[in-house]
Amino acid sequence: MKIDYNKLMHEEISSFGSKPKLLLHCCCAPCSSAVIEKLKEYFEITYLFFNPNIYPIDEYKLRKEQFKKLNVNVIDLGYDHNEFLNLIKGKEDEKEGGIRCNICIAMRLEKTFLYAKNNNFDIVTTTLSISPHKNAEFINITGENLQKKYGIKYLHADFKKENGFLRSTQIAKQVNMYRQNYCGCEFSAKQ
Length: 191
Prior knowledge:
Strands 3-2-1-4-5 form a five-stranded parallel beta sheet. The longest helix has 20 residues, at 99-118. It is globular. It is of the alpha/beta class. It has a single domain (5-190), classed as Rossmann fold. It is built from eight helices and five strands. The chain has helices spanning 5-15, 29-39, 57-65, 81-88, 99-118, 136-150, 164-174, 186-190; strands spanning 21-25, 44-49, 74-76, 123-126, 153-154. Helix 2 (29-39) packs across helix 7 (164-174). The model has no long low-confidence stretch (mean pLDDT 96). It starts with a helix and ends with a helix.
């Protein structure tokens, strides 16, 4: 039976008391915009930008810069593209949305949970599920596994539901935000 992660997210949110501290992994400002809009009334949000998959470095800097248009400060865990390349070695030619992407997503979520653990956050989630090209089930199962490993709640989500992706494009246009045309790595750019 397929899980409705959007419904599950709403159920989880309604079970929380006062605004818990949420660490939100942000893939980019356009995708983050609709997620922030959806979550800001329920959580005290800290924004984490950890995306060593993005290539080249100028693209990384441009994407990070766009958060200013949302009046959001992000914590940047640094850019080490070799970390990503070493993890996906041998998977460079995999199709977008395949095993290479899963490795990348798992790496970024792991670092997010580690940061959350070391900085006393209550909950973790990611904006990644807003993309129509990302597998919400894989993202949520990975989050569940990391929740068990680190002892920090994972907020299930499928942010593309309820027109989330459409809303992110609308907000990006409203604030004249740069919106990239590929996920991030050089391999997705080629595809």
